[in-house]
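Training component of the fellowship. As part of building independent skills, the fellow (R.M.) carried out the full modelling exercise for a liganded target. The chosen ligand was uracil. The inputs are recorded below so that the supervisory panel can assess the work.
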Amino acid sequence: MERLDKILAAQPGVSRSDAKRLIASGAVTVDGKTERSAKRQVDVERSAVAVNGVLAAFRRNRYLLLNKPQGYVSSTDDPDSPTVLELVPAELRVRGLFPAGRLDKASEGMLVLTDDGAFAHRMLAPKRHVPKTYYVEVDRPVVDEALRAAFAKGVELGGGDRSSPAGLRILSPASAEVTIHEGIYHQVRRMFRRHGAAVTRLVRIRIGALPLDPALPPGGCRELTEEERELLLKTTEPQRKPEAEDGGD
Ligand code: URA
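Fellow's submitted model of the complex:
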């Protein structure tokens, strides 16, 4: 259920104030009856909403949160491996659903799936620098203050790639939380590789301000709440590129 003005304002070219004006003018009907309250709660999948007598084909986009287990690829189809789409329960599947972002096949954790291309673009556009945080375990004890300082300067990844300054929260000599601001191919694995360690476990635990729901088990998938979606959108407003603590090297 959603407010009528919000439903109308979700259509291209209609602002919230346009929607309120249309409703107040008596141009909008719900199930054939004129509705003058912008606050009226409507389920667009069950009720017929019309504007000036023309039935509007409203369709809600879908936004899902998935806790990806290892072994699934972040794409819509793959000849060799199961895809994350196979983890979406039948009742949540819609045409055009795709993962808004990538995790390696061996990585785990938070993945958002949607059929809303504009939303995905907002989350993924490099200029937005949406921070993503990973829980990382490595095969040798390299996690220390020196590594934190190195990550804070940005890491040369090879192949012409360089990460911007990244956050490192030390958990133990072989585990940490790492926050990065871009999505370079195998970025976190390459950052540690550069410092002599192989990543043995990589779990995305936060995108922007939205943490992975601890109640969502590996392989679990559910709709994002309205508040969670708003939170994600808020943190995808253009952010300043993080600056190196020490000018970079
Ligand atoms: N960095 C990686 O190396 N792999 C991921 O899956 C995500 C970030």
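The panel noted the following from the submitted structure. Residues 103-104, 107, 186-189, 202 surround uracil (CB under 6 Å). The chain is about 20% helix and 25% strand.
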